[in-house]
From TrEMBL:
Residues 354-400, 646-679, 757-812 are annotated as: Disordered. Residues 667-679, 781-790 have a biased composition (Basic and acidic residues). This is Muskelin N-terminal domain-containing protein. Pfam families: Kelch_KLHDC2_KLHL20_DRC7, Muskelin_N. GO terms for cellular component: cytoplasm. Keywords: Kelch repeat, Repeat. Residues 16-211 form the Muskelin N-terminal domain.
Length: 897
């Protein structure tokens, strides 16, 4: 049944009035009604919980009328920029009633005086808008430990237009009715109640699933037509019903080392902190600059993917007109529209150097001499006597020394091979100051560059300064500050600035993803999005590590596929939490490549090829560079520093890329030389492709399940010789013999032939699902066949039989149900006895040539095979996930809670 369409014009969002419905106890005079009032100068105008710390506290708000709630704003005290009682972390739940509420926000507040506004989810996962009457605010943490959590003024905004809200409610009610009815239909068919199932389908005009899925159920479960069931798998794939599963399957990385050279047999030498970009149309990769452990580089290289060849474009750009000099920690992007390369930012050998004896600060490629003592320390790469120091001349003209230069290189047209010096100092024209370890992306369609974060280079390494979010319009040659230094005076959420982070652009949705990096001494694991069209910032994760993502890391690299809506993250430095985090930094060896799917918002580790030795795979590293070609779905990785080779690392050297480890943490045998550190900087070049299970793999797994069931039935009905031949040929051909678990399951099938016994119904058809955690899926047959080798007869109590035959029914559960070994008589064997009875409609579905009877256990077995195959089919094309039993269990748990 189609859902009612909403009116085309959406009413304006307005402030919503509310009252306090209820709350947990409050402290003193700080009652919940205080949050209704906006008195930022009044210290008493707040709610404060009666209990300290993380306890179950909340405030329930009731809207004056049903509304579509779209945002919530939290005011703060204006008398102080920080308060230990200020709420730091919270959740928001909404619902039409107080008893059934859903989480729509989990976020945090800054400890300042600036109000913050958050968008609230008001559309469910099926795309249906829902109304709200009650709002529950659940504070989790205060900014100060062991303080009472306080909430100041709270305001809500949404749509209250009565006609529109009524349409939303009707559409949402219809969605809920349809959803419940689909659960009922699924339940009836699983229990072999085909007559009421078909009656509801015809009367309500509801579609339980895709027609091909229904045909598969009829062919497999009702008819036992194995050949036709397998043929339907090809039709299901052709209709795209497997696409979603194939996309969500855990991929494996397929690495290939690229060994191409230039005409002289050379390749770019080892380095870290270099810049790399790619022309995806002509498949050419460009590399410029970096730090080799002794000095900044100014060589410029191009690699042709099609020819597998390097070409040196310039041995020294310093010697060229209008070209950038030696540098590292800079950024370079490619404009696919014009074929131009833009270069911004730097750290070179003279930027802010101090006496080597001073402490060091970490950069994208290592540590900078002369930084705050709180940063991890390390020995200088070269002896103090050789360390260059700023001359008096450069010191007297610091404005020129620390100017932010901006360059463009042409790869096409009449100017191909030429550099443009676009600006001597971008800060003078509204752009960012001189920065390093920032990020830059290019929206080629709009001809706009975006730059975010980075550490400011101004000669003062005792104070950490960071840059904000800027845009550069290529057409007008103008910079625009979007969020200066990551702190906006507006009420909307802002992105904390940082350096050594990642930023990628979804060119289709015009969304920036900014995450990880370092701020002060902290490695970050948060993620934000910036909507270019609206300027709205949204915090996606405050800690993506807790959501299955990588550890907090620095100088990780990331790329995005805007068509697949996936981010691929190559981890950088992570602190070893088992020892002193100030001196122990390393790249973890086991899990350093991750995938983030933006549509479900889930993290997944990318597995390594099982048939590869460590020597055939790239070392984990930091200060490396990666580029991505979305046309060929290929990632390229170059250089960096394999910092995991020292325990208790990392050291110095222009790119956190692995010069000698910290003096207070390094083992004696690793204390020596710059030679050892230099060898750890890498010059290897790799291609990575993601391999997911193909449709042939899904079809094979489905056939394996179908043929297993066919073999079990043959053991009971056909001569043993015929069943054995089928096992050796047809079943064996559907097995992945390289998969140990599948092979074990296959061998266990022989027990059905040696001692055949009546089929045993599983506990629930929905209890088991195939797993695709390793690309080659192993289904629930593992435990299923183990169970079937020693079947247990179904036990039915005599009392249950007498109760059913007497026709007496009661809705009350007897007191005996409370005992562990006794069930109420009307519940014993009920569902299994339903499956034993042939429904009158089965003859219509099964046809004249079908077997005269179909036992209940066999019906359950076939249903389980069908349900397992359904796990490969897109969610919106199959019956609801879960069952009515799951809904009952959820409701029971809610009542208990």
């Amino acid at each position: 049944m189609a859902l009612p369409a909403l009116q085309t014009s959406v009413p304006k969002t307005m402030p919503l009035k509310y009252t306090i419905a209820s709350s947990t106890p409050h402290s003193g005079k700080y009652g919940p009604e205080n949050i209704i009032l906006d008195k930022p100068l009044d210290q008493s105008s707040r709610w404060s919980g009666a209990f300290q710390g993380n306890t179950n506290q909340w405030i329930m708000l009731r809207l004056e009328s049903l509304a579509v709630l779209k945002s919530i704003t939290f005011g703060k005290s204006d008398t102080s920029t920080a308060h230990p009682c200020n709420m730091k972390e919270f959740k928001v739940f909404v619902g039409i009633s107080e008893d059934h509420m859903a989480e729509v926000l989990h976020a945090g507040l800054k400890n300042d005086a600036v109000p913050e506004t958050f968008s609230l989810k008001h559309v469910n996962d099926s795309g249906v808008c829902f109304p709200t009457q009650f709002v529950k605010i659940v504070p989790i943490l205060a900014h100060g430990q062991n303080f009472h959590i306080s909430i100041w003024h709270t305001s809500l905004a949404g749509i209250v237009d009565s006609a529109y809200v009524e349409q939303v409610r009707n559409a949402y009610d219809e969605f809920r009715e349809t959803s419940v009815m689909r659960y009922v239909l699924k339940h009836l068919r699983q229990r072999r109640l085909l007559t009421p199932y078909q009656s509801i389908l015809s009367r309500a005009n509801i579609h339980l699933e895709h027609p091909l899925v229904t045909r598969l159920h009829e062919s497999l479960v009702l008819q036992g037509n194995w050949a036709h069931s397998e043929k339907l798998l090809d039709s299901i794939y052709s209709s795209g019903l497997f696409d979603s599963h194939l996309h969500s399957s855990q991929p494996q990385s397929e690495w290939t080392r690229l060994l191409g050279t230039d005409a002289d047999g050379d390749v770019p030498p080892a380095r870290g902190g270099h810049a790399m970009c790619m022309d995806p149309v002509n498949e050419i990769i460009y590399i410029f600059g970096g730090w080799n452990g002794e000095k900044s580089l100014d060589d410029f290289w191009a690699y042709s993917v099609k020819e597998d060849k390097w070409k040196i474009l310039s041995h020294s750009t310093t010697q060229e007109q209008n070209a950038p000099g030696a540098r590292s920690c800079h950024k370079m992007v490619f404009d696919t529209k014009t074929g131009s390369i833009y270069v911004l930012g730097r750290l070179n050998d003279l930027d802010g150097l101090r006496a080597p004896a001073q402490s060091n600060t970490r950069t994208q490629h290592g540590t900078l001499p002369g930084a705050a003592a709180s940063q991890p320390q390390s020995q200088p790469t070269q002896p103090p006597a050789q360390a260059p120091a700023p001359s008096d001349e450069s010191s007297s003209d610091s404005s020129e020394m620390y100017s932010s230069e901006f360059y463009r290189y042409h790869t096409r047209g009449m100017l191909a091979g030429k550099w443009d010096f676009l600006a001597i100092d971008t800060a003078a024209t509204g752009g960012p100051p001189l920065i390093f370890d920032h990020q830059m992306v290019m929206d080629s369609g709009a001809q706009i560059l975006y730059v975010f974060g980075g550490r400011v280079v101004d000669g003062d390494w005792d104070t950490s300064k960071y840059s904000g979010l800027y845009s550069y319009n290529v057409s007008t040659s103008k910079w625009k500050s979007l969020h200066p230094q990551g702190d906006s005076s507006s009420s909307s959420q802002t992105i904390p600035s940082r350096f050594g982070h990642s930023m990628v652009l979804d060119s289709i949705t015009k969304t920036l993803y900014i995450f990880a990096g370092q701020r002060e001494e902290k490695y970050l694991s948060d993620m934000y999005t910036y909507n270019i069209g609206t300027g709205i910032v949204t915090e996606i994760f405050s800690n993506f590590s807790a959501a299955g993502g990588p550890d907090p890391c620095f100088t990780q690299r990331a790329v995005i596929d805007p068509y697949l809506k996936e981010l691929y993250i190559f981890c950088g430095l992570t602190r070893n939490t088992t020892s002193n985090p100030r001196s122990t930094l390393r790249a973890y060896l086991s899990n350093w490549v991750y995938r983030y799917d933006t549509r479900p918002g889930k993290w997944m580790q990318i597995l390594q090829q099982p048939d590869k030795t460590p020597a055939e795979l790239p070392l984990p590293r930091f200060a490396h560079q990666v580029v991505y070609n979305p046309n060929t779905k290929t990632i390229f990785l170059h250089g960096g520093n394999a910092g995991g080779s020292f325990s208790g690392d990392v050291g110095k050297g222009r790119e956190a890329d692995g010069d000698p480890p910290a003096a207070d943490a390094v083992n004696e045998e690793h204390k020596n030389t710059a030679k050892e550190s230099k060898e750890r900087r890498l010059d290897d070049f790799w291609r990575m492709e993601l391999k997911r299970p193909g449709p042939e793999e899904i079809i094979r797994q489905a056939k394996f399940q179908i043929r297993r069931q066919q073999f079990r039935e043959m053991c009971e009905e056909e001569p043993p010789v015929k069943a054995l031949k089928f096992l050796q040929t047809q079943v064996a051909s559907a097995v992945d013999h390289n998969n140990a678990k599948e092979t074990e399951i296959f061998r266990s099938l022989l027990t059905h032939l040696l001692s055949p016994s009546p089929a045993v119904a599983p506990t629930s058809p929905s209890d088991s699902r195939p797993s695709t955690s390793s690309g080659s899926t192993v289904s629930s047959v593992e435990h299923e066949d183990t169970r079937e080798t020693s079947p247990r007869p179904i036990k039915r109590s005599r009392a249950g039989k007498e109760s059913t035959e007497s026709g007496v029914w009661t809705s009350e559960i007897s007191p005996a149900a409370a005992g562990a070994d006794v069930s109420p008589s009307f519940l014993v064997g009920g569902t299994e006895r339903l499956k034993e009875v042939t429904d009158p409609l089965e003859a219509l579905f099964r046809g004249e040539d079908a077997q005269p009877t179909l036992s209940g256990p066999r019906y359950s077995q076939r249903t389980e095979v069908f349900e397992n195959i359904l796990s490969f089919i897109s969610e919106n094309e199959k019956q609801p996930t879960g069952s009515l039993l799951d809904l009952v269990e959820k409701d029971r748990c809610r009542i208990i809670a």
